[in-house]
Amino acid sequence: MNSEYNILSVEAYDMSGRKVTADNNVGRRHEISLEFFAKGIYVLNVTYTDGTREAFKITVIR
Questions:
Q1: Domain span holding position 18
Q2: What are the angstrom distances between the C-alpha of 44 and each of 6, 15, 17, 25?
Q3: Residue-level pLDDT at 27
Q4: pLDDT confidence of residue 15
Q5: How far apart are CA 9 and CA 22, in angstroms?
Q6: How is the beta sheet containing 40-48 ordered, strand by strand?
Q7: Residue 55's pLDDT is what?
Q8: Low-confidence ranges of the chain (pLDDT < 50)
Q9: Chain centroid to CA 44
């Protein structure tokens, strides 16, 4: 994930709402390894240092 803004945190949740990973103070570039994610749909919540947030849906297909 690349951003023109500084990223404060990235959290990934499965569809049952369980947090599967979280990283803090990641800067402008961040990589999440999907190697250990089970097949399914996940929501990535990204929080920027200015307090704004974005959510992204990702699908893991094996």
A1: 2-60
A2: 16, 11, 11, 15
A3: 83
A4: 96
A5: 7
A6: 19-29, 2-14, 40-48, 53-60
A7: 97
A8: none
A9: 3
**Residue ranges with strand state E in 1-62:** 2-14, 19-29, 40-48, 53-60
> What SS3 class is residue 2?
strand
Q: What is the Rg, in whole angstroms, of the alpha carbon atoms belonging to the chain?
A: 12
Say how many domains are in the chain: 1
**Cα angle vertex 11, ends 6, 13, to 5°?**
155
Strand, coil or helix: 31: coil
Q: What is the CATH number of the domain that holds 30?
A: 2.60.40.1930
* Spatial distance between the Cα atoms of 15 and 41, rounded to a whole number of angstroms: 6
